[in-house]
Amino acid sequence: MKRLLALMLAVVMITAAVLTGCGSGSAAPAGGEGLKVGFIYIGTPGDVGYTFAHDQGRIYLEEQLKDKGVTTAKVESVPETADSEKAIKNLIDQGCKVIFATSFGYMDFVEKVAKEYPDVKFFHCSGNKSNETNFVNYFGKIEQARYLTGIVAGLKTKSGKIGYVAAMQIPEVIRGIDAFTLGVRSVNPTAVVNVKWTNTWYDPQLEKSAAEALLNEGNDVIAQHQDSTAPQIAAQEKGAFAIGYNSDSSKAAPKAYLTAPVWNWGVYYVDQVQKILDGSWKAENYLGGMHEGVVDIGPMTDLVDADIKAKVEEVKAKILDGSLDVFAGPVKDQTGAVKIAEGATMTVEEQQACKWFVEGVNGKID
């Protein structure tokens, strides 16, 4: 009888545990190990690009808050499909109470999972969806840094033709091209930025082929919104110059690399996790800039002349003191029509919906 009662009690306890774990729709507790933070990446940190920049932010988060028991977990090479939903739930099952989903295409899946797990906080990078409780989007004013790198390209080009290898035809990429071109034309009014789309975030072979095509068409500086260093390598092989993206990738193409717009994601990650720890966190969308330190222009190499560096620093100071908004009007589109009137600037909502190129861009948006 005692054995029977013990067996029945064990069955009841196991059943209760299963029901608690599967039926509540909430994350498992961290189990006394402190706050665990999960990250999902579209690529791998080894790309020295977009994912690398996010992973540097994750590492910085651990370093800054390790004394407070913060740990992290990550899942790499997660496609922008329903697989991202599985990856998020896997991290939650591991005890993560905070999730950073770092690519645009994860947005709808994050929104769905956030409804299922109300006690987990979700952060989605570069999107435009959120709620008022546990799901926010975050990004930075990378257009500020892109404008500055446009100045470098505009003063460095000899042909007046600058190539741009672009990933997806979404507002984030389009307004980046626009900001870069405005920077180019602020110092070289007749220069043209020629765009080729790859329609992928990360495909080194395709990125390099697009860059090679631009180089063969006479572009002597190559810029990019891509995750790999392949366009920079292509530029080096052709004796041209390159503007990178996401992080300092000068080692990949030292004879071509000039500088890059770079991300410092750790600034935001530490701020948000600290607020969660001290109980002051609110569900607020974020768009930080150079002033907050989340974006910047990377170190300019010795291939950039001293007078160009001085010009960049002069304009950077104006961005930092608020006297220059890179999207301040008047700004015309490709047809010559005024899109941003004098005295006006693009609102955040307009930037998130931007589907037009500024004057000076040679490219099409489908």
TrEMBL record:
Ranges for domain ABC transporter substrate-binding protein PnrA-like come to 36-321
Q: Which UniProt keywords apply?
A: Lipoprotein, Signal
Q: Which Pfam families match?
A: Bmp
Highest taxon, organism lineage = Bacteria
* Signal peptide residues on this chain, from the entry's feature table: 1-27
User: What are its GO cellular component terms?
Assistant: plasma membrane
- Per its UniProt record, what PANTHER family does this chain match? ABC TRANSPORTER SUBSTRATE-BINDING PROTEIN (PTHR43208)
The protein's name:
Putative ABC-type transport system, periplasmic component/surface lipoprotein
Native organism: Ruminiclostridium cellobioparum subsp. termitidis CT1112
Lineage of this protein's species?
Answer: Bacteria, Bacillati, Bacillota, Clostridia, Eubacteriales
